[in-house]
Specification:
Layout: H1 4-18, E1 24-33, E2 36-49, E3 52-59, H2 67-80, E4 84-89, H3 95-104, E5 107-113, H4 116-122, E6 127-144, H5 146-149, H6 154-161, H7 165-180, E7 193-200, E8 205-206, E9 209-210, E10 213-226, E11 231-236, E12 247-251, E13 259-263, E14 266-272, E15 282-290, E16 296-303, H8 305-308, E17 318-322, E18 328-330
Parallel strand pairs: 3-4, 4-5, 6-17, 14-16
Antiparallel strand pairs: 1-2, 2-3, 5-11, 6-10, 6-15, 7-10, 8-9, 11-12, 12-13, 13-14, 17-18
Helix pairs in contact: 2-3
Length: 331
């Protein structure tokens, strides 16, 4: 994990998988202080079920956590009236901390990195691929009324078309048409597919005048981004073997905070697109998770997707015409 907040959210995903049915798991929770009600206390993760409250506190450190942290958590449990506290350390605990935790009922958990041999014996590594459409040979045509086309200024059209929603609407229509063609099937793997789409607009303005319709033609190829082999950690009680642990986390560190968490036959997937580079005229579309055995997808999150769904448009030539005039190329 690269920062404390990401580590805490990972722990939250683990407990969403392994907590008892009906439990409510919350990241970055705030609880009213019973001794000072106007004030709240921040808790990394809470688990609530009926009237029971469990506090989960996380430490992302390079060295094992010591007795002082355990003593702090004992006090926090008493102060907030919690039934239990779970201490999660990325770097384990000292022997003294584990002894103190056992004596006072603090549950301890850590993440044990699996060796290549352990991962091989585990045999449940999950493959992850991201896909985007790469567009080429593009042509755009914009139709205006005969009255409107005379008022359009070339410089304004060049500037405004780069970000205007009409172009994104065209690329979205193209992506849907390509999806219907099922490029993921593999039959067209590595091949460019020609397409053409048209969108009719209602009350959409470009350069201050109504845009009647627009069309987009071109070719597209489905491109895969292969996720590197993940770093695998087993989550559970310290000093226990990986086979006895409660969950396994596969971190795809080449794709931001992307991870797949597995407990028994259930998985939770987080896709972090914020660090994924999509080239100009590229359009992110799919995620594929491949497993050797059938698994239940308990949760699926995608972070940073908003910008990746927009196509970066640079140097695109546009044809402007009216319904009564011959097409006139501008731009």
């Amino acid at each position: 994990m690269k920062n404390p907040a990401a580590f805490e959210r990972q722990v939250r995903r683990i407990y969403e998988l392994i907590a008892e049915s009906g439990a409510e798991v919350t990241w970055n929770d705030h609880i009213s202080d019973p001794d000072n009600p106007p004030r709240t206390r921040q808790i990394d993760v809470t688990i609530r079920r009926n009237s029971s409250l469990t506090l989960v506190e996380c430490r992302l450190r390079k060295t094992p956590q010591d007795v002082q942290w355990i003593e702090c958590l004992i006090g926090r449990r008493i102060s907030l009236g919690a039934q239990s506290v779970i201490a999660v350390s990325s770097s384990g605990f000292t022997a003294g901390a584990l002894a103190k935790a056992r004596q006072y009922g603090i549950i301890t958990r850590d993440l044990q990195r699996l060796s290549d041999k352990e991962v091989e014996n585990w045999g449940k590594r999950i493959e992850l691929r991201l896909y985007y459409y790469q567009y080429s040979d593009l042509g755009v045509s914009l139709r205006f009324s005969p009255e409107s086309i005379q008022t359009i200024k070339l410089d304004s059209l060049r500037a405004e078309r780069r970000w205007h929603s009409c172009l994104q609407s065209l690329f979205n229509a193209a992506a849907q048409k390509l999806t219907d063609a099922n490029l993921l099937s593999g039959r067209l793997d590595g091949q460019k597919v020609k397409f053409g789409v048209e969108v009719v607009f209602d009350e959409v303005h470009l350069c201050g005048v109504p845009l009647e319709r627009a069309s987009l033609t071109g070719s597209a190829e489905l491109v895969a981004i292969e996720a590197d082999a993940p770093v695998v950690h087993a989550y559970g009680e310290p000093n226990t073997s990986s086979t006895q642990r409660e969950a396994v986390v596969q971190d795809f560190q080449s794709i931001g905070h992307t991870s797949i968490t597995q407990s028994a036959d259930r998985i939770s997937t987080l896709i972090d697109l914020s660090q994924v580079e999509i080239p100009p005229f590229g359009h992110f579309r799919f995620v594929r998770v491949n497993t050797e055995e059938e698994l239940d997808h308990d949760a699926f999150e995608i972070f940073g997707i908003e910008e990746k769904l927009k196509v970066v448009v640079t140097g695109l030539r546009v044809k402007v015409y009216s319904s009564s005039d011959a097409a006139a190329e501008r731009g």
